[in-house]
Amino acid sequence: MSLNRTITPNCRDHLEKVFVEQDQALLKSEAQKLDLKIVLDQSEAQKKELKIELEQRENEKRELENDLEQIELQLQKVNQKAGLETKKADELVLWLGEERKKWEKENNILHRKVTELEKQLEVKKSYIDELEVKTNEIKEKLMKEKEDELEDIEALNQVLIVEGNNKNAELQEARHALIMGLKESASNTIGVKIMGDLEKQPFVAATKRINNSRKYRKRAADNTAAELCSLWEQYLRDPNWHPFKIITDKDGKTLEVIDEDDEKLEDLKTEFGDEVFEAVKTALAELNEYNPSGRYPVLELWNFRENRKATLAEGVSHLLNQMKPNKRRNVRPTSGWKPT
User: Fold this and answer.
1) I want to staple 277 with a disulfide (CB 3.0 to 4.6 A). Which of 60, 248, 259, 269 is the partner?
2) Residue 293, Cβ neighbours under 10 Å: how many?
3) What pTM does this model have?
4) For residues 33 and 128, is the Cβ–Cβ distance under 8 A?
C-alpha cells in the first residue's frame, strides 16, 4: 500500500481553471489586436489610394498649366495676328481659370482627407501600442501567477512524498513484523513462503529413479539428492550465471524471461527430467523477481490458497483469527514479537 504522490484533484482542477481563464483572456486580447491591425491595414490602403489620386490631380494640374501656357502663347500670337479673336481668347482664359479653381478646391478636399486619415492612423497606432503594453503586462502577471502556483504545488508534492515515504516505511516495518510472527505458522491459507528456495523433493525423486537400476539404498539416494540440490543452490546464488533473455510480447513490451536454451538448464533437464528442471526454473524466477541483485532467498507473506503474494490486511486478519480464544491456533510467534 502506498500514498498517491500526484497532485490532489481539487488542486489540479483549480489550477486547470486558472490556466483556462488566463488563456481565454490572452486570446481575447490577441483577437482585439488582430481586428485593430486589420482596420489599420484598410486605412493604409485608403491612404495610398488617396495619395495616388492626389498625384493624378497634380499631374492633371501640371498638364492644365502647360496647356494654359500654350494657349496663352497661342492667344498672344493670335492677338498679334488678329485682334478680332481677343474676346474668344479672354473667354477661354476665363474658363481655364474657373477650371483651375475647381481643381484647386477638389485638391484641397483631398489634402484634408489625407491629413484626417493620417491623424486617425496615428491614434490607432497609439492604441495598438497601448494594447501591446497591456498584453505584455497581462502575460507577465499570468506567468508570475503560474510560477507561484507551481511553487505551491511543488511544495505540496514534496510534503506528500515525505508523508508517503514515511507511511511506506511504516507499512514495510509492519509487514516485516507480520512475516516474523507468521514464519513458524503451519497454516495452509496465509503464511510465509521462502521466495527463491529450491524445492528438494524433485531432486529426491529424480535420484531415486536414476539410481533404481543400480540398486542404491534409499539413504544413498537421499544423500545424492541433497548433494545435487546443494550444488544447484550454489548455481542459483552465482551472480555470474544469468540464464535470462529479453523478449518482446504482442503488445510491444520488453520482458526478461528464463532462457531455457541455457547450457546448464538443458543438461539438467536431459539428465534429471522435467520436475527438477521446473523446480530450478521456479526458484530462478522468484529470485529474479524478489532479489535479483542479492540472488538469495527472501521471506514473503503469501496467500497459499490463491498462490499469490498476500496483502498486509490479509496477514493481519489471519493473525487476529489465529489469536481468538477457543479456537485451534496454528501460529507460534517468534520470541519477543508482539502484534501492533
Assistant:
1) 269
2) 6
3) 0.45
4) yes
